[in-house]
Amino acid sequence: MYKCSASDNIALLFQKSLLFGLIIKTLTLTILWVCVNQAAHAQEVDDEFTVLIDPGHGGKDSGTRGGGYFEKKVVLEVSLEVAEQLKSTPDIKGVLTRDKDVFIPLDERARIGNKVNADLFISIHCNAAADTRAYGAETFVLGLHRNEDNFEIAKKENKVILMEDDYEVKYDGFDPKSPESYMTFTVMQEEYLDESILLADKVQKRFTNHLSRHNRGVKQAGFLVLRETSMPSVLIELGFLSNPKEGKFLNSKQGQKKMANAIVKAIKAYKSSVRSSSVSEIKSQRIEVKENRDNVKENLYTFKVQLAASSKQIAASKENFNGLEPISKGKEGNFYKYYYGKASDYQTAKRLVKSAQNKGYQTAFVVAFKPNGEKISVAKAIASNKD
Predict the structure, then answer these.
(1) 99: Cβ–Cβ under 8 A, 6 or more apart, which residues?
(2) Burial code of 121-159, b = ≥16 C-beta within 10 A, e = fewer?
């Protein structure tokens, strides 16, 4: 039997040490590669450019039915095509508010965009008119309407909130038919106005210069779906379904694909034009703006509607208060008091009183609270919110 010599043992140990060193080196390189790759991936995710695509209407809300076409179906097909085309663009991610025929409240559409921290919000719609000769595409940004036509379009798109439960509470008493309700739109979205107009301009140029669609221009109007978004936002009216020729084009697969392609190219052109600032930096700024806006709201004195007072405690749920929500409660002395809604201005609170009275609470009245929850006089709260 062969026996290892001392020199053989030394050689074997040397080989083992070399192998061990190679393994350690390989593991070290592997770990470094994983760390670098994860860091790069994290940077890639942070810098991902996200577009929220919002097909208007849906479900019980069919939108316009001009020319016999369903707006909710046409805009869904165009939106799905936009999302599909964006898949081939590695640095842009498309997110849909809906991918099927379902009803989504306007505030929820904006909430989806804010939740995914989108860089752009694009709501897609179709138009209609009594005059079937009307035609062409137009893109809106949020603002005060400049003429009656823009106001009528905004009213038409905003009236969908009447299909929602407790819309007076959700939208702070907004009345889609009242011109006074639109006055606040002059300051909303101001920090994103320039970027919104830039995107709208690029959309219109793609429609007109590359698809030869009639250019109805970039306009401002008070669309609720744009009001609560924390990013540049536009609402696109693809064209008039009530126009026989344009309606047929928009309802066709070819027409939908062409319109979607124009929107995608406008998105890419917009992204290219703002590339001087990193996407992550822009996202960070938008988060800060949203937090500042939320802080301002939290520092306002608030109004609620008192519905009842009782020595017995009951659950603050809509089932116990004739379907009204949200319901909150507080205790004063030996009594529990129950409140409906929450508003930052007195006029909205008065409208909530009417809603409560319609549900049987004829003695409902407005009460006011400090930001810390302390109850104060209504007159003081009104004066403080004006300061």
Answers:
(1) 76, 80, 83
(2) bbbbbbbbbeebebbbbbbbbbbbbeeeebbebbbebbe
- 170 neighbors 111 (Cβ within 8 angstroms): no
Cβ count near 116 (within 10 Å): 14
What separation in angstroms does the CA of 315 have from each of 40, 225, 318, 366? 50, 33, 9, 21
Question: Are the beta carbons of 113 and 229 closer than 8 angstroms?
Answer: yes
Q: What six digits make up the tokens of 372?
A: 């810390």
136 is written with which tokens?
């062409």
At residue 99's C-alpha, the angle toward residues 98 and 100, to 5°, is: 95
DSSP string, 213-262: --EEEEEEE--HHHHT-SS-EEEEEEEETTSHHHHHHHHSHHHHHHHHHH
Each residue's pLDDT tens digit, 259-295: 999 999 999 999 988 864 555 555 655 555 555 445 4
Distance, in Å, from the CA atom of 146 to the CA atom of 221, rounded to the nearest integer, reads: 7
Distance CA 226, CA 182 (A): 13
The pTM for the full model equals 0.58
* Full set of structural domains in the chain with CATH: 46-294 (3.40.630.40), 300-386 (3.30.70.1070)
Q: Which two tokens stand for residue 125?
A: 């719609």
